[in-house]
Amino acid sequence: MASGSRLFRSETVTPLILIALVAVLVIAPLVKIVLATLTPDGLAAWQAVLASPLSQNLWWKPLANTLILGFGVASGCLLLGGFLAWLVILTDVPAPRFLGVLSTLPFMIPSFAAALAWGTLFRNSRLGGSAGFFEVNGIAIPDWLAWGLVPTLIVLVAHYYSLAYTIIAAALSSVGADLIESAQMAGAKRPRIFFGIILPVVTPALIAAASLTFAGAVSNFAAPALLGLPVRMQTLSTRLFGMIETGSGERGFVLALLLIGVSASFLFLADRVVSGRKAFITVTGKGGRTKRFALGAWRWPLFALAVLLGVGTTIVPVLVLAASSLAPQSGALFSNWTLHFWIGEGGGQMAQGQAGIFRNPVLIDALWNTIKLGLTVAGITMVLGLALAHTIVRRKGTLLANVLSQLAFMPLLIPSIAFAAAYIALFGAPIGPFPSLYGTFALLVIAAAAHNLPYAVQSGRSVLGQVSADIEESAKLTGASAVRRMLVIVFPLAIRGLLAGAILVFVKMVRDLSLVVLLFSATSPVLSMVAYRYASEGFMQFANAITLLILVICLAASLVAQALQSRVQKWKQS
């Protein structure tokens, strides 16, 4: 009886309930998709994908393209992100803070925004339709630069290098000046210092940056779809989308499992490499100065190069999208501007009679659905993330906390489009008395909340780790219930970190395409999917205008978050 009573105490019941909830959100869809591929039709799909005359087009070519993009993007991001991190953190380059901010901006721009901007400039007439700006103005664009692997690779590197910069810069800032100065006093030259001290210390960050950018590239749907599908360049994500879209569900589920395997294998190997390395202690109690190397005559040229890189991957795409949304023809971006694609009435000759986006009922619904989806998912993940983080932090080291932590971070290993496929497998048909959720707004919310759990949990853990458990224990001694302690003590103390996590989730949902592309329906349109549909049908001005609207929403959300964070926790200033 004693063991049974311990089992039903709140300290044990709460983690068990949370484990069951996360298992339903994360494990159940994966189990369902595996079971769907073990049926007779599923086994036939395995054979068709891996061992049939169709395998070359269904698996091997998409796999090769996916790996080329993955390793190419990881390498390019390490070069660009590493260069910028070194320049900002370890040199005397002018305006390092400005360069740091500029280097983090590209990741805020959706990858399909960069792909649309690339198409607006470099699209050629190979596929018919309107040519891009350069070809219309007399500059011939070869096919390999307009479509396929090369432009997709360039766009994805431009999108993800800021992620690598953030990770590497954080590692470089921990390299204390005493290490470098000791090596200089011993007569070591700069190459020796770099390869003997700096590089070994930041190797875990380099591996982490490479693994995350690799995973992002192999799971990205937007850029390969916009720049590759028109010339039949398939990746695993676009092939998966095609299978589900055309009704070949079992083959799509097989490809989803294989895509998960490719992404998770690389992340697992990267983790093993990092965990197997000898650790280097660089942060001590002797101060945290960072040694900056003098660039001499190279200060301003390298500064100009960094600014050019930042402007080319942030400001230029936005300007191109803005000009395109105002130009009647993509070849004349900066003349005869009109607001028709924004507020024009339908029925005329322009844009085949379609009204501007703010006069289109579908776009108004998509705008409302997008904001509603972002706010709903952000709110759910903030509450659930706080509960999970609180349980993990307060019961650190216990079996239940470890299991919960592993489950909560499992979605990071699953590409977005594969996660969406798993949810279609689970909720695409009625489950007992519950109806099918496929094509509903509810399914979008549940899938998005589950996939964004790791970000909410990490935000909660980072804040709760700084809050002493003694405060809660004192309240518990006064008779405060667990719910009251959570509402009155934990939530107010963690609100800033939770807001940061919630705003990150909101921005991710507003700009996300890979997750919603399979769960999208006519009754639940979202802006990113409508922009993709317009681009696929050749209405680039509408697609670019919607993408600009997405950027404005993301920027406004970031500003609102900063304003809210400055107003909460006023008691800390008194």
TrEMBL record:
Transmembrane parts of this sequence: 12-31, 67-89, 101-122, 134-157, 193-218, 252-270, 302-327, 373-393, 400-425, 486-507, 513-535, 542-564
A single BP term in Gene Ontology: transmembrane transport
Topological type in the membrane: Multi-pass membrane protein
Gene Ontology CC terms: plasma membrane
Subcellular location: Cell inner membrane; Cell membrane
Predominant place of localization: membrane
PROSITE patterns linked: ABC_TM1 (PS50928)
Protein name: ABC transporter permease
